[in-house]
Amino acid sequence: MLATSAYAQKKVTLSGYVHDGATGELLIGATVFIKEANQAAQTNNYGFYSISVPAATYAVSFAYVGFTTHTEKLEMVDSKTLNVDLANQNVIKEVEISARKDENVKNTEMGTTKLSIERIKTLPVLFGEVDILKTLQLLPGVQSAGEGNAGFYVRGGGPDQNLVLLDEAVVYNTGHLFGFFSVFNSDAVKDVTLIKGGAPANYGGRLSSVVDVTMKDGNNKEFHAEGGIGLIASRLTLEGPLKKNKGSFLLAGRRTYIDVLTKPFLKGNLAGSGYYFYDLNLKANYTFSDRDKVFLSGYMGLDKFNYENSTGTFKADIPWGNKTATLRWNHLFSDKIFVNTSVIYNDYNFASSFNQNLFAIKLSSGIKDYNAKSDLDYYTTFHHHFKAGFNYIYHTFTPNQVSGEVDTTVLRPNNALIKYAHEAGAYIMDDFDLTPWLRVNAGIRYSWFGQVGPYTRYIYNLNGVKTDSTAYSSGQLVKSYGGWEPRLNLRFELNEASSIKASIAKTYQYIHLLSDNGTTLPTDVWVPSTYIVQPEIAWQYSVGYFRNFLDNKLETSVEVYYKDLQNQIQYKEGYTPNSLIDPEQEYVFGSGKAYGAEFFINKTQGKFTGWIGYTLAYTNLTFPALNNGQTFPAKYDQRHDVSIVGSYQYSKKWTFSSVFVFGSGTTITLPSSFYFINNNLVQQNGKLNGFRLFPYDRLDVSAVYTPQHAKPKKWEGSWAFSIYNVYDRHNPYFLYVNQTGTVNSPGGIKLQVIEVSIFPIIPSITYNFKF
Question: Among 178, 262, 313, 596, which one is most buried in terms of CB atoms within 10 A?
């Protein structure tokens, strides 16, 4: 009797990895479900899972969207290790997932969206280039920085308040072609996750959102290649095993040929002009044992614009780009303890060189990081999932640096403006069921930031004249900041199909992107917190109702949020870039409030899929030194934002998609009055961001044609046709006041507000292939 009771109470653990059966790719977020025990788990970012249940016999189901569910009957007398390969779902029918299709209702995540690359690739594109960040901007709560910009705003935060990661490395500049396209090559990407609010404690350093992009591991079973030929760029990806079922590699490249296409049309002073961008993704991994895996990944991207006049007397060369490298080691200490340790390097640089006769000058800026981090997953027998970890970053900030020669004078960079800093953080969090209807994700993070020398601190009087200084030697602490960042997410289950979620989060941001135009152009400068610049701080509160219909085929949600923003930073009014003085002397500081509501309807299964998103949002800022101290709307205060996305799989050969977007006009500062001084017309601006552009709307359509063959072929090809801006809407890019005539001319001076648009209707075609 006692033996039977002890056996009934015995807990055993099932753990292992879930792979794509065709390629060996680790599957992130795959569901493991044991119906008899009503227990579920998801694989982590490295495809690992661990789940504990009472000893018994169970039917265990493994599921992942787009794959056939695998169910296996297991006699769980002792703990087991089970690695599972899932088969890709190739037939045209609804994806049958008998396991947990209701994760959006059951988990504690708020404002979190995962997008499959397959879905992204079916949507209409501009110039044939699939763009991950543009797709994220179709979700509620995420707004574009404007047509032709890769930057984006999330729930009232600026573009620098988004933490963008590629295999754990921070990407500081996300745009190619002056921001028209993002730096992410979709052929090299496996998983994309957006977190808009209530980010768990393992993320830190930004106020608004996290975009976590994971690269593919590479096929460890056989060699494959894929790519595409588009209107302005082509791409090629190679992948294959280093050793079958043990290790693999992936190499992906993309380059535009705008410079080649436009060269015949550039005449006169434009004949020497050119522009191109390229990027390279590299990844390799190897399994040394059942407990040890190593991953090495890297990215390098470059944009380059050059100009030379017809006589060769003036030349300009403007390159900018990112480099990242990540080395990771996965180690299993037991079937319940998983540890990932990473060392990361990233470097972002912008430079511009100008040469004219005896005049040569170079302007450069950038940021370089060395990063080490370790994260632990601990799955307890009693269904607590603990995560804990730490990270450390050494930053080098290079503001605008001037060097060159003017006649016989040599200009040397002002290295005194370079700043150095340490940033560190540690966290612990727990995800667990407090009751059958209440699930909790609670965490605490402590972050610290310290500016260090070499550095010279200057004291200025009210007239801006230096009166004193303090010199700090290399490594000496100049100023430090730190604070606790509590995070709490709650899920109240109302029934099997609906739940209410709530979250509260405090975040610190110690590095800042300073811009006088509010976009992520490469001329913007990353700067640290210093004795003058305090860290930005935000409290975010959100609550949402989540409800699924039609057997979880239709997901719906309503979320409301409120954000209190402190220590916000902008340039003072009338700021003019000047590389000879420390730019932090030109900063002003204030606070902000952002609040709104987001509505989302998402059909996830069937031949027809898609979503409708609507956002109602307000973002207001108050800076004592701006707008006479009066509260003003942020540049990205956009009242209404609507996105409608649909994709229909008509047959095995044809898939049709469309996107419609509508947004209220963003704010802009325009002149309110004009007057003459010595017969010169002078304008006086009105209230800061006191005017709005006209509303934005656009319809895009696309069709993907995939030929079908009676027998499988080594070469597979498909054609992607798309039309951007179907009804040729002339959406405003910016406004300016045009002046014609003079005081003495007939009719005098005429002023006219001119609206500039960029993209008319644009058809495109791309050929994609795989072999």
Answer: 596
Q: Which of 711, 722, 723 is nearest to 768 (CA)?
A: 722
Give the separation between CA 168 and CA 341, rounded to whole angstroms: 11
Please name the residues in contact with 192: beta carbons below 8 A apart, sequence gap of 6 or more. Answer: 114, 115, 117, 120, 132, 136, 211, 212, 213, 214
756 contacts: CB under 8 Å, gap ≥ 6: 732, 733, 734, 735, 736
- Residue 697, both tokens: 């709307």
Quick check: 147 and 154 in contact, CB under 8 A?
Answer: no
User: Could you tell me which of 420, 478, 423, 430 has the C-alpha nearest to residue 447?
Assistant: 423
Hey, what's the torsion of the CAs at 576, 579, 581, 585, to 10 degrees?
50
- E strands, 496-573, are 498-509, 511-514, 525-528, 536-549, 554-571
DSSP letter string, 712-753: --S-EEEEEEEEESTT-----SEEEEEEES-TTSTT--EEEE
Question: Hey, what are 120's tokens?
Answer: 């992204």
Q: What global pTM score does this model have?
A: 0.90
Dihedral (CA of 184, 187, 188, 192) sign: positive
Q: Which of 126, 82, 133, 233 is nearest to 760 (CA)?
A: 126
What would the pLDDT profile of 477-519 be if each residue is shown by its tens digit?
999 999 999 999 999 999 988 999 999 999 999 999 877 543 4
**pLDDT tens by residue, 584-606:** 778 899 999 999 999 999 998 88
